TrEMBL record:
The keyword Lipid metabolism appears for this protein: yes
Name listed for the protein in its UniProt record: enoyl-CoA hydratase
Family listed: Belongs to the enoyl-CoA hydratase/isomerase family.
GO biological process terms, semicolon-separated: fatty acid beta-oxidation
Role played: Could possibly oxidize fatty acids using specific components.
Keywords from the UniProt entry: Fatty acid metabolism, Lipid metabolism, Lyase
Broad class of enzyme this protein falls into: lyase
One Pfam family from the record: ECH_1
InterPro entries per UniProt: ClpP/crotonase-like_dom_sf, Enoyl-CoA_hyd/isom_CS, Enoyl-CoA_hydra/iso, Enoyl-CoA_hydra_C
NCBIfam families from the UniProt entry: PRK05862.1 (NF004517)
Length: 258
């Protein structure tokens, strides 16, 4: 399917979605958010896809929600469309691992979109921020909540209240980003990580993602109980038998995703 605001490519079991409105620094307009939701639903349904990379362009991963598109909106326009909610649900519901490969600006909704992904790999040029306060609003796609959980209260307050940007090194120190690489190695690194993830047992990777994400919503005791039960349930799968047999026989496992 052809899209106007994103590009979807495939390399084996890895799918890459590139946000593609470079002249607007990949500002997230309604059309792009809707295309992204559609693309994710298709990739979710495609069993041959094991991992997804979400990326932008060198200058911007995404510079936020499209300010010009929403500037005249009233409360009821936003309430009735609820564009952020639909988009948020599509990303949130996506059950396969998704890596954000970020270079340049990841601001406002762009930072929030990166945080909806499971792993953020950043180029050394990346800049993260929640500058909405400069526009007379605050983050509206999960920024106050996800940033708080990712970097703690003091830095989340600092970023959301001053509107300043943090560079890749600060983002890595704060725990927002898993790795920093030179810009020219960004996609290579993201693809290597994605291919490694896609080579694992898909249902096991999905259950691992689900269990880690559930930890944001529950107590430590509940989370550990969920982990234990999910771990036990993996012993009903072919891939657990195969993975452990391959280790004992000193060979590579051949996972069948079941
Ligand atoms: N919405 C709409 N258009 C945007 C945009 C955005 N978020 N960010 C950049 N653009 C457009 C600019 O208007 C400009 O378009 P024109 O050429 O037609 O004038 C083009 O992209 C290039 O941008 P700049 O000329 O501003 O580029 P720069 O290099 O001088 O500055 C920047 C880069 C610092 C990222 C600056 O563009 C900027 O501050 N952008 C806005 C960042 C922002 O406030 N994001 C939050 C948006 S609100 C939000 O996201 C709410 C939410 O939580 C859901």
């Amino acid at each position: 399917m052809a899209y106007d605001n994103i590009e979807v490519t495939r390399d084996g079991a890895v799918a890459t979605i590139q946000l593609d409105r470079p002249k607007a620094l990949n500002a997230l307009n309604v059309a792009m958010m809707s295309e992204l939701a559609t693309a994710l639903a298709k990739l979710e349904a495609d069993d041959t896809v094991g991992c997804v990379i979400l990326t932008g362009h060198d200058k911007a991963f995404a510079a936020g929600a499209d300010i010009k598109e929403m500037m005249e909106d009233e409360y009821l326009d936003l309430y009735k469309n609820d564009r952020f909610e639909q988009f948020h649900m599509a990303t949130e519901r996506f059950r396969k691992p998704i890596i954000a490969a970020v270079s340049g600006y990841a601001l406002g909704g762009g930072c929030e979109l990166a945080m909806m992904c499971d792993i953020i790999i950043a180029a050394d040029t990346a800049k993260f921020g929640q500058p909405e306060i400069n526009l007379g609003v605050m983050p509206g796609m999960g920024g106050t909540q996800r940033l708080l959980r990712a970097v703690g209260k003091s830095k989340a307050m600092d970023l959301c209240l001053t509107g300043r940007m943090m560079d890749a090194a600060e983002a890595e120190r704060a725990g927002l980003v898993s790795r920093i690489v030179p810009l020219d190695k960004l996609m290579e690194t993201a693809k290597e990580a994605a291919a490694k993830i896609a080579s694992q047992s898909q249902p096991i990777a999905m259950m691992t993602k689900e269990t880690i994400n559930a930890g944001f919503e529950m107590s430590l005791e509940q989370g550990i109980r969920l982990e234990r039960r999910t771990f036990m349930s993996m012993f009903t799968t072919h891939d657990q038998k195969e993975g452990m047999a391959a280790f004992a026989e000193k060979r590579k496992p051949h996972f069948k995703n079941r």
